[in-house]
Amino acid sequence: MASMRAVQVSEAGGPFELVEREVPTPGPGQALVRVHACGICHSDSYAKVGGFPGVTHPLVPGHEIAGAIEAIGEGVHGWEVGQRVGVGWFGGNCGWCELCRRGDLMNCLNMDIPGISVDGGYADYVLVKAGALASIPDDLSAEDAAPLLCAGLTTFNALRHSGARGGDLVAVLGVGGLGHLGIQFAAKLGFDTVAIARGRAKAELALRLGARRYIDSTSEDPAAELTRLGGAKVILSTVTSTAAMDAAFGGLGVHGKLLVLGASMDPLQVAPAMLIAGSKSIAGHASGTSKDSEDTLAFSVLTDVRPVIETFPLEQATQAYERMMSGDARFRVVLTTGA
Ligand SMILES: [Zn+2]
Ligand SMILES: [Zn+2]
After folding, report:
1. Ligand 1 centroid, distance to 42 Cα (angstroms)
2. By the 8 A CB rule, do 236 and 186 touch?
3. Which residue of 83, 236, 242, 331 has the fewest C-beta atoms within 10 A of its own C-beta?
4. 98: CA distance to ligand 2 center in Å?
């Protein structure tokens, strides 16, 4: 039996362990993917420390997987061995639950999540449901595709479904792993894009990525500035600080929407009355399906959106994960297998 490297977490809170495993065989409806690159996402901390429904150990983390199909199981249609593919948070839907039957695949009650409910991409190979595969365009490297499959998809899909239209004022709150992609997508989707972050350190970068205006929230009032610019149609929040969201909320224009991507358990302080004047709203957005991933990758090639990344070899998963968790990475960390 052929063996492969995998980085697993054996128990909640335990370390990453580089282990040898047997290369799995794809069952019916599955594909075996040779992993070329796998991005590290903040949500990988669920695999590391637990605390998310469906996490069982031992577990191989990783849901920003880019590689190529090595083998396909019975009953897989539309995919070929050798084809370059990616997989994100959406690991395939069940097909029989209430939400699947309504066509709402992303909210499937039994969805596979790579690196959370099934083994993920911190390995040489990973098994994936064929319905979770996204085709990777030739012009996109595996290292660049990987972060686009979660961080990219999340921001792109949220923005394109936000209701904002070309020329509308859209603010991206936070210039980090999600935000640096959100700024690029907002600009490339034709929005009048404003970036908001703390301090001046990321100002020049934000402008280079496509923002027309940068607001330093430590020296300027983001709500007042957005109002002065006409009021935002959308504030895309990529931060976890609810204080930062509160400070920006007042900058929404009429029918403006605070779109929340950064997962925080802290409550917002927005007074309900502030939602009524101007018919404003607060909404969340869950990433997207495999087809949304494919759209994200295609749009990124079409408009030249790329993540800013740091790469580490698979065997340095521990250092790579710590680098990502430190908040110092510019901006996404990607593991490479050498394949
Ligand atoms: Zn993620
Ligand atoms: Zn389902």
Report:
1. 6
2. yes
3. 83
4. 7
Residues with CB under 5 A from ligand 2 (ion): 93-94, 97, 100, 108, 110
DSSP letters for 177-229: TTHHHHHHHHHHTT-EEEEEESSSTTHHHHHHTT-SEEEETTTS-HHHHHHHT
Cα of 285 from ligand 1 centre, angstroms: 13
| pLDDT tens profile 136-195 | 999 999 999 999 999 999 999 999 999 999 999 999 999 999 999 999 999 999 999 999
User: Which listed ligand is nearest to 131 at the C-alpha?
Assistant: 2
Two structure tokens written together for 250:
């007042």
Ligand 1 center to residue 272 CA distance, Å? 31
Q: How far is the CA of 102 from the centre of ligand 2 (A)?
A: 9
Q: How far is the CA of 203 from the centre of ligand 2 (A)?
A: 43
- How far apart are alpha carbons 339 and 326 in whole angstroms? 28
Whole-structure pTM value: 0.96
| Residue 135: both structure tokens together | 């085709």
What is the distance between the alpha carbons of residues 159 and 299, in angstroms, rounded to a whole number? 13
Asked which of 159-163, 225-229, 327-331 is least confident by mean pLDDT, the reply is 327-331
- What DSSP assignment string belongs to 222-275? HHHHHHHTT-EEEEEE--S-HHHHHHHHTTEEEEEEEEE-S---SPP---HHHH
Cα-only R_g, the chain: 20
Pairwise CA distance, residues 195 & 226, whole Å: 10
Using the mean position of ligand 1's atoms as its centre, give its distance from the Cα of residue 91 in Å: 12
